[in-house]
Amino acid sequence: MPLEQSTLNQLIDTVRRFVNERLIPLEEQVANDDLIPDKVINEMKELGLFGLTIPTEYGGLGLSTYEECLVVLELGRTAPAFRSIFGTNNGIGSQGLVMDGTQEQKDYYLPKLASGEIIGSFALTEPEAGSDSASVQTKAILDGDDYVLTGTKRYITNAPTAGLFTVFARTNTDEPGSRGVSAFLVDANTPGLTLGKPYKKMGQQGAHICDVILDQCRVSQSKMIGGKDKLNRGFQTAMKTLDRGRLHISALSVGCAKRLIELSVSYSKDRKQFGQAISEFQLLQGMLADSQAECYAAETMVLDAAARRDRGENINMLASCCKLFATEMVGKVADRAVQIHGGAGYIDEYAVTRFYKDVRLFRIYEGTSQIQQTIIAKNLLKD
User: Fold this and answer.
1) Residues 27, 67, 126, 366: which is the catalytic one?
2) Together in a domain, 352 and 373
3) Across residues 299-305, what is the average pLDDT?
4) Are both 15 and 39 inside the same structural domain?
5) In terms of domains, do 109 and 45 share one?
6) Contact 167, 123 (CB under 8 A)
7) What would you report as the CA-atom Rg of the chain, rounded to the nearest whole angstrom?
8) pLDDT tens digits, residue range 159-175?
9) Are 185 and 122 in contact (CB under 8 A)?
10) Average pLDDT of 48-57?
11) Helices (H) and strands (E) in the chain — how many of each?
12) Is 249 found in the same domain as 217?
């Protein structure tokens, strides 16, 4: 059920103040230390950011897709690493459970995810199953009342701090492709689950990823998402989760673009060359105008698709349209921002430089731009 408008406005104002007063001033420190302070994480918990999309009966805020996107537009105005720490609890780390979990699974895990007591992580990608996510090779072999999981998951967001993994594994090795895959809830302390060394990334310092290794990891049948009714149907759970997740990333891209435009406008007014502010030059004005127009178009797309999803429409193609356009858009906006800053745009001390590296990931995770193109085309061409 949607929030009352006054309540939603209050939430957005609170998040905006938190971004402006707490997160933006910490961006450089987090980038240098590759660490988000525990105090800030605790403040995020107090604000309810770990449970934005989790239903209210489990301690979350229960935001609709549209409301979630409005909040994420504000969160996008700061370094993406801040959002990453609680983003999986609201998206791919919890939505499979919300959509398809048994009542017992929901009762046990969702309150912990909503409060931030545990961090959820989505373990789908593998060394040989990236964009071709249906080629999951991790196996889950039934042994008595348990499944024994064996395989490796790669580039898993929040894995170093996660308390719960949604792991996708092949329960029927005779079924090819997406068929025969099931989803499991695997606690981080389960014997046989170990973590690889965190990767050093191009950007998004403070958000950590690593491999997850499953070596004879024994998981009860009761930990299969949805129970026996969802046996061999885990890939469908993953895809349903990604539709909403792609709108989330699209809204995040728009928020980042807005911040980049703000930084570009401010710098261009202050920076003087040839005896005048560089904002007076029409070629630079053209770059600002292109960025603003593209940002507005992406925002309109995202909010329209989100509203359609809340009305119960199938937005599979629209989610991919948003993900493709918004993430490509913010990449171009970031590139223009660096160009407007000139030499300063190549110096790490400037926020535009960090954003330039941070937003590059948006075109890769949760489905590359090329995968989105494929999804869009298939939807257009199907009978």
Assistant:
1) 366
2) yes
3) 98
4) yes
5) yes
6) yes
7) 21
8) 999 999 999 999 998 88
9) no
10) 95
11) 12, 9
12) no
Q: Give the CATH number for residue 356.
A: 1.20.140.10
| Tens-digit pLDDT profile for residues 112-159 | 999 999 999 999 999 988 878 778 999 999 999 999 999 999 999 999
Domain boundary among 84, 115, 146: 115
Tell me which residue has tokens 């745009």: 345
* Residue 245 confidence (pLDDT) above 80: yes
Same-domain pairing of 241 and 374: yes
Q: Which two tokens stand for residue 79?
A: 């370094």
The number of domains in the chain is 3
- CA nearest neighbour of 76 among 33, 24, 39: 24
Q: Is the pLDDT of residue 361 over 80?
A: yes
Residue labelled with tokens 């170093």:
160
Query: Are both 343 and 265 inside the same structural domain?
Result: yes
Q: Cα angle vertex 344, ends 341, 347, to 5°? A: 130
The domain of 199 spans 120-233
CB 15 within 8 A of CB 75: yes
| pLDDT > 70 fraction of the chain, expressed in percent and rounded | 100
- The two structure tokens encoding residue 358: 């941070």
Q: Which amino acid is at 242?
A: L
User: Looking at residue 183, what is its pLDDT?
Assistant: 94
Any idea what DSSP says for residue 59? T
- CATH number for the domain that contains residue 90: 1.10.540.10
User: Do residues 199 and 159 touch, judged by C-beta distance below 8 A?
Assistant: no
Does residue 1 surpass a pLDDT of 80?
no
Q: Decide if 163 contacts 116 (C-beta within 8 A).
A: no
Is 28 annotated as catalytic? no
Question: Tokens in use for 320?
Answer: 């991919």
Question: Residue 28, Cβ neighbours under 10 Å: how many?
Answer: 15
Claim to verify: residue 259 and residue 370 sit in the same structural domain: yes
276 shares a domain with 160: no
Tokens linked to 22: 């707490």
Q: Which residues contact 2 (CB under 8 A, 6 or more apart)?
A: 8, 64, 66, 67, 310
